[in-house]
Amino acid sequence: MARLMDMGLEKVNSLLLEMATISENAVSESIDVYRKGGDGTSVDRLSDQLRVLHNQVSDLTMELIARYQPVASDLRFIKACFEVSYGFYRFGRYAHDIVEVRDIIGDVSKCDQRPVVEAAKKTQEMIRMSIDAFARRDVETARMIPQMDDVVDQRYRDYLRKVITGKGDLRCALSATLILRYLERIADHATYIGDSVVYIVTGVSPPS
Amino acid sequence: MSSEAERLAAGKDGVAVSQEPDTTSVAKTKTLVEVQGLNAWYGPQQILSGVSMQFSSNRVTAIIGPSGCGKSTLVRCINRLHELVPNAKLTGSILLDGADIYGPQVDPVDVRRRIGMVFQKPNPFPNMSIRDNVVAGLKLAGVRDKKKLDEVAKSALQKAFLWDEVKDKLSNSGASISGGQQQRLCIARALAVEPEVLLMDEPCSALDPTATAKIEDLVITLKRNYTVIIVTHNMQQASRVADYTAFMYLGKLIEYDETASMFETPKEALTERYITGKFG
Amino acid sequence: MNARRKLVDRFWIAFTLVALVLALAPLASIIYYVTVKGLAALNISFFTHNFSQVGTEGGIANALQGTFLVVLLASAIGVPTGVLSGVYVAEYGSKRYGEIVRFLADVLVGIPSIVTGILIYSTLVLSLPAPFRGYTAFAGGVALGFMEIPIVSNTTSEALRTVPNSLREASAALGVRKWRATLVIMANALSGVTTGILLATARIAGETAPLLLTALGSTRGFQGWFQAMETMTLFIFQNATSGTPFLVEQAWGASFILLITVLGINIIVRIVTRRRTTFV
């Protein structure tokens, strides 16, 4: 039975899916810029779009709560949507930050890009899984994300330990460190998105 | 602090107790009313099937559910009003403070004095004044002391947040005030006989939103001294006033939980469907 | 088509108007004739002398006395019994017993008054031990009382039935004993109950047939309950059939007095139902 609120819920859902695609593209474009150089303005534009969309989601969720007094799964969904939206927004911000690193430091195509590229692959897989879990409200997929987060965390820490020995080009080390840091944060947010999906379906939040 | 609030806050000795934040929600509570395996019929039609639940003292428990789920019948069994209907039948037991109110030695009139009720449509006695309405329960039990009756009337009207509005027209007919005021009058009337439990059967259905809000505020203060069981078809009302909520459907208890839990994460699929409005 | 419908409409209006006139005609003619013919008989001696078929000095003095006393006795029997019976039907009887009593009352109301007359005749007039035997005012009062009981019972139970059930529930929920709660219900139905009593009284005051077999009539004033007595209706019967023009005129005069008395009671009833009465 269709309810008054359903239209609003669908709108929020489609806004989030739109943000999902945009943020996924922003992150992969930013990695391309790191690897091959190029203009970062496209990524910046995507990041701005995400900020605007996040504000729309924020306004819409408030309106739904004020007008319809949602309960149970509807309420959990709306609460989670706000958090997920913030996650996608952060993807965009970090993509912007990655491009900024390349912009400031300059050409790093001669550096050993493997650590970043491999971490990026894992992170992008996590992004895809979090989007998938959200779109299908799939708890199974969502539960697989935290393990992958551990891998990305490990890569970051390992590289950090290696880089403080001081060997190698400072520009390469600095850019890689910063970008790995951003990728680690992106991975964290992907995990949070997974947690939100579990909360929507089961009502259980992860222990803090 | 207004004089009315002062009076409400004053303890037994008349000494004002400091206005602390409401701690009754963490104060100790016990089960005051316990329904065990209740079945009820009107003639051949079974209305309640095997209903069992507990109501905590000094708490507000709401009973929600679609029309025909038996919630009104349930409360009418609790104050033994159900049996006054011809061809009504019930089995099972209901314990008030541990003793079965349907026990063989129990006087139903006494049960009804200890368990008061307020109805959906306000029903003050039209041929009695406001003051007489409030103390009707006492007068009809034979109490004649005018001074005592006046004291009880004032105290009950204050508890019902109605004193200030009617103190200058106590001798007007009980039917001469607005609907919302009449309902508070009925609450005062029920409180005047000092019940332990107050049953409220959709008390705000016939009232406008402002009057409803006043009664909801009143209900929350009542739990300091009484155990309140409120039947409502308005889920938002249940989520506003109740500590616990029971969801009934087709004569059975489906789920019973703390209100906040039930409205955030209900355990039964049926409950989820009902409270999100996906029912027909 | 419109013109035809208008025509049909006008026809029905005219038809119902004619029917109305025909329905009111008997009442109008009664009032007219009785007034015109009755007024001629009224003078001082009409009111001060007793019934007499000799000469031109008779009057309704003892008839008035008799009607008053007989109706008094009838009401003393009929009103308390009828009211209590009506209360039983409306408040206490289970639905089935209540319906049975009501049905019996309906039947009794429909029994021709002469049959009641015969019953009292054979039980009181013929079979009582002396000095209670014979045609007596007492027997007349009892006969009319018997007739009054079912009428008052029905009007009382009808009046009580108009009191909304919400008041019964309110009293029950307060933990009030049933008989005290019934008093409250009575208070709310008081005007209806009084109307019923007054109308029943007016009706039996106009009965003739049972009095022919019980009070019989007399040319003397009140001699005691166990002597025959004259009443207004007997006076009219005896004089109308006498053949003497003067006496026939007296009959019209008595009819006129009786008519305005009945009208008077009906008017009082109207006034009574407008005012509200309070007791508890």
Top keywords for this entry?
heterotrimer; A: 208 residues; mainly alpha; Methane Monooxygenase Hydroxylase, Chain G, domain 1; B: 280 residues; alpha/beta; Rossmann fold; six-stranded mixed sheet; four-stranded antiparallel sheet; 12 helices; 10 strands; 24% strand
Please provide a written account of the structure.
The complex is a heterotrimer of chains A (208), B (280) and C (280). Chain A is an all-alpha fold. Chain A has helices at residues 4-36, 41-68, 72-105, 114-136, 139-163, 170-202. In chain A, helix 1 packs parallel to helix 3 (72-105). Chain A is elongated, with a radius of gyration of 18 Å. The termini of chain A are far apart. Chain B has one domain: Rossmann fold (3-Layer(aba) Sandwich). Chain B has helices at 3-9, 71-78, 108-114, 130-134, 136-139, 146-159, 163-166, 179-192, 209-222, 235-241, 259-264, 269-275; strands at residues 31-42, 45-56, 60-64, 88-96, 99-100, 115-118, 197-201, 227-231, 244-249, 252-258. In chain B, the strands form two sheets. A six-stranded mixed beta sheet of chain B has the order 6-7-8-3-9-10, with helices on both faces. A four-stranded antiparallel beta sheet of chain B has the order 2-1-4-5, with helices on one face. The model of chain B is unreliable at 4-26 (pLDDT under 50). Chain C is an all-alpha fold and 280 residues long. Chain C has a single domain, classed as MetI-like (MetI-like fold). Chain C has helices at 2-39, 44-48, 61-92, 95-110, 113-125, 137-161, 165-173, 178-205, 209-212, 232-240, 245-274. In chain C, helix 3 packs parallel to helix 6 (137-161) and helix 5 (113-125) crosses helix 6 (137-161). The mean pLDDT of chain C is 88. The chains are: A mainly alpha (208), B alpha/beta (280), C mainly alpha (280). At the B-C interface, helix 3, helix 5 and helix 8 of B face helix 7 and helix 8 of C.
